[in-house]
Amino acid sequence: MTTFKELGVSDDLLRGIADMGFETPMPVQEKVIPELLSGDRDLVALAQTGTGKTAAFGLPLIQRVDTSRRVPQALILAPTRELCLQIAGDLADFSKYIDGLVVLPVYGGSSIESQIKALRQGVQIIVATPGRLIDLINRGVVNLADVHTVVLDEADEMLNMGFVDSINDILGHVPDDRKMLMFSATMPAEVARIAKRFMKDAKEIVVGTRNEGAKNVRHIYYMVNARDKYLALKRIVDYSPNIYAIIFCRTRRDTQEIADNLIRDGYNAEALHGDLSQQQRDIVMKKFRDRVVPLLVATDVAARGLDVDDLTHVINYGLPEDTAVYTHRSGRTGRAGKTGVSVAIIHSREKGRLREIERIIGKTFERKEVPTPEQIIEKQLYSLADRIEKVEVNDAEIDRYMPGVLRKLSWLTTEDLVRRVFSLEFNRLLDYYKDAPNIDFIDEKPRKERKEKESRPRSDKEKDRRTAERGMARIYVNLGKSDGFFAGNLIDMLNRNISGPRIDVGRIDLLLSYSLFDVRKGDAHRVVSALKGLEFFGKKVYSEIADPDRNYAASSSRKAGKGAKGTKGGKKQKDV
Hints:
Elements: H1 11-19, H2 27-38, E1 43-46, H3 53-63, E2 74-77, H4 81-94, E3 103-106, H5 112-121, E4 125-128, H6 130-138, E5 149-152, H7 155-160, H8 164-171, E6 179-184, H9 189-198, E7 203-206, E8 217-223, H10 229-238, E9 245-248, H11 252-264, E10 269-272, H12 278-289, E11 295-298, E12 313-316, H13 323-330, E13 340-346, H14 351-361, E14 366-367, H15 373-390, H16 395-398, H17 402-409, H18 414-433, H19 447-455, H20 458-466, E15 472-477, H21 487-497, E16 505-510, E17 515-520, H22 524-531, E18 535-536, E19 539-540, E20 543-545, H23 552-555, E21 567-568, E22 571-572
Parallel strand pairs: 1-6, 1-7, 2-4, 2-5, 3-4, 5-6, 8-13, 8-14, 9-11, 9-12, 10-11, 12-13
Antiparallel strand pairs: 15-17, 15-20, 16-17, 18-19, 21-22
Helix pairs in contact: 2-3, 3-4, 6-8, 15-18
């Protein structure tokens, strides 16, 4: 059995991945790591998400960085901020025993000033979304002249999201002799064109089966109680702000009922079924083709005459009896070289039917949990932030109105103004999800294991979260997801405010109103001292070494500094 050491991975990296529980390389890692470490050819790797791609390119990329030089030497492009942060976090974990290595995630929706500051301090690896990187290049902040390796992760998804021009622009700023690796789940025409234009004698590596044409589709399913299907549908739609989808139903009655319910609940939807006249049908189809209506609820028969190439989703409100019907439905997305998603919302009695479809089409459905209210609101808010960043401003027309508008709003701080803009857009959504429970999806774990887990007292589960791993100290900080605080912000805050030896961060738990993370015991007091008194978008930061017996969820709801335990000289103080 091949080991990471036999692949050429350095000892410092071996220590880091051993701490993460890596034992033997996955197939994509066996194929890619040696090529990136010693090969001269560019690589196109066709592999699905979850195959170990990040370690496959991340380990050799880190190993090839010269830590004595604080200039960008490696560039990783990713389609979304979530993937950007995930990759940066994994690279930080891999390199925890390598001194002087700086990995910086840059993405829209976060403060560009803090990213500029970090870039000016010097970084070796940049993980970026294309839009934000182009902005930084245009500002003259990023110089890619020393980049020796470029990685395009989820290239097909980036092209599907409209980043082809940005990618072409970015690749025009890197040296011609750089090594390039492109990861893609599929090989649509645009991906092939980029490979041909920017890659030299590229070697293709395939993990699993090569997906082309109508196979550019991810198949996922949500399993819920039958009574929760409609609620699940709304959450799936809300979690996809730019959705353009057909929702397939079995009967005309279900089709009209679901469309009526969506319209009643504020969604822009229309029904398409056999009870409509031809004139009604033509009107509905035109509105859908023109994207006036992004959600079309349809029967299979009624949708046969509808030919649309750029659907983002096909949603199966239950599975059809005939596998050929499912194949026809899912084939309506992932067209014209684009990727798409086929979603099935099912209950437990449909699980056998799902497995039968998997066997016939030769695809495995991914199990997903129904998005939570917190995840939906976060996704929607970031989507609006992206739209605000990218909106075209006609300065000539709007400048004459600005003095009066600015006088009207001059009493508002920037934060107040942003809050009001977001509230204006999302009050309905915020109110709807304010007290909404998580949908109880059916757990597929063995019943005995599930009962044992559910029988554990909640206090025990919370205590596990507040307890550090062996050899580590658990740190509390009063910033959470509701503050827009994520792993990348934490790492950036530590890098910018702690001098001296590098801080190794272990397990991170991001909660709604606070966060907990592990550092080495010897670094704990240094971390707490550095974080105290900082500000994060106007909120005063408070930190302490976590007490396993304390209810931080309750204390974090208070204002920073009120009713919070402090640390002084390593000893706890009583509540003020």
